[in-house]
Amino acid sequence: xxxxxxxxxxxxxxxxxxxxxxxxxxxxxxxxxxxxxxxxxxxxxxxxxxxxxxxxxxxxxxxxxxxxxxxxxxxxxxxxxxxxxxxxxxxxxxxxxxxxxxxxxxxxxxxxxxxxxxxxxxxxxxxxxxxxxxxxxxxxx
Amino acid sequence: xxxxxxxxxxxxxxxxxxxxxxxxxxxxxxxxxxxxxxxxxxxxxxxxxxxxxxxxxxxxxxxxxxxxxxxxxxxxxxxxxxxxxxxxxxxxxxxxxxxxxxxxxxxxxxxxxxxxxxxxxxxxxxxxxxxxxxxxxxxxxxxxxxxxxxxxxxxxxxxxxxxxxxxxxxxxxxxxxxxxxxxxxxxxxxxxxxxxxxxxxxxxxxxxxxxxxxxxxxxxxxxxxxxxxxxxxxxxxxxxxxxxxxxxxxxxxxxxxxxxxxxxxxxxxxxxxxxxxxxxxxxxxxxxxxxxxxxxxxxxxxxxxxxxxxxxxxxxxxxxxxxxxxxxxxxxxxxxxxxxxxxxxxxxxxxxxxxxxxxxxxxxxxxxxxxxxxxxxxxxxxxxxxxxxxxxxxxxxxxxxxxxxxxxxxxxxxxxxxxxxxxxxxxxxxxxxx
Lengths: 141, 434
Known about the structure:
The complex is a heterodimer of chains A (about 140) and B (about 425). Chain A is α+β, with helices and mostly antiparallel strands and about 140 residues long.
């Protein structure tokens, strides 16, 4: 249930993100989810893609700084309170969320979650019978 | 082993006698053959016959880089051009290059001091030396080359650049010694990791690094990356090139080959000679050189001299690792800053690399310092909290060392130009806007 998220450190330089998407396009890598976090000086692109290893190699060969980070993806009903219920569980179990990104579509909501102790996060979510998606489930969305 | 024990272990009195008679002969030569020196000496009322001992060195006039430029290209040569067998020139980043000429015996002298240097680092016949200093007008490549041949080592004259070929030769030819700039050594070490080359395929034992200032922390990093013992070789083309001074196995400063290059430390402001142990500008008088001897040449390098006994057995005076060159020193809001100080802060932190650049600007009449630091490709976190933590710690450590604040900017690995010659550590934009 671990998902390999691609993390890319991007200097604040014009056209850098376009360069990144060009390489993914040329290597036939599909992006399922993507978020860009920014600070004053640099950005951090995090994405879930099909064939993460291939994407990592292609980006590294093009001079990008790329890491694979393990994240979890939890599926919930697209209705008020779903996310709150999950976060309540994590708070009770004292799991700190490092970062998270979420979206909903056709009655289903998905949240990608990163915590430092990722195996414990997954264990806790499974214990509470929450539906976790695998990498393959996600790429096939 | 000691290459020339008679010279390198001479007692102080012997050395001073040697220096005195060499100085006497040198002053006579430059007075007779170089109008520039004759005029300088006459202006101070000095007749060459008056100079008979080393104690009188301090009476003689200084020579500066500006004097070299004014006499460009051959105005300071003491011999006819037909006797000059080689010309080197240093990369002038501003204005004209600095030109130096060598007679046949100067080339012999150079091979001798480099042979002493390599021997000092435990290198001998049977070693294979990969010389990744630039071959050409720069003195690094050819300087090391002749000394390495003199001791009977096998030389790979690969020059700089082409990292893939460097690594191929290093592994296939089983190089045991690497000679290059410290920043290129770090680059090669990182490339070995990046290419996934097994440590068993690398046979390096020793590194001979110089031509740019580097910190003790950078030494540790290079030694770890390449699994070698790293030695500092010091030199400047005006004096001869690499081989002016060298570290022995005790690594307590560089022994200066003072039978040929007589050092002094002066206060750069008052020009007074300072006693041993005090920090000041290093000055050399090259008593043995034929083609272009220099009288009290101001190197602009800041260091200290020590004459205490060294466990290696050599009696040659030692100089500390240069704190920096007076031209590299930045004055930011009135505070003296050397790139080597910034480097030492970065090298103490595990999460950063030795690749950095200082950018100085003037905004609203106030100097600003920006330090660009590459994140470590092997060891970085995608957590912004952690990256910001690193940035804040660099900021804090810089502030506590230098007493000024700087803007720390984390940049992508390999985004700061890698020098195959020398690293461009400083971009000072203050003067261009005037």
